[in-house]
Amino acid sequence: MNVLVRFRYWVIAWLELAHVSGAVGLLLAPDFFLAFTPFNLLLSAALVVASHERSSWVLPVGFLGAAFAGWVVEAVGVHTTY
Length: 82
Description:
Blueprint: H1 8-28, H2 30-34, H3 37-50, H4 58-79
Helix pairs in contact: 1-3
């Protein structure tokens, strides 16, 4: 069992705090916060993987679903004015 599985709710709270503060920061100082976007995405993915039980099939399916949803949103955004 992974160590962070016991602290799963703290990891979720930390990720929520990081994303809310990042969203507010992008509105107030976009140049400063845009530089941290790749770090935030990598750290978030690492925390999710580290705090998830290894024997579950939900994590890979969730990552594939998120990747597909991101691709669809990107394709719609490129081919429309939205």
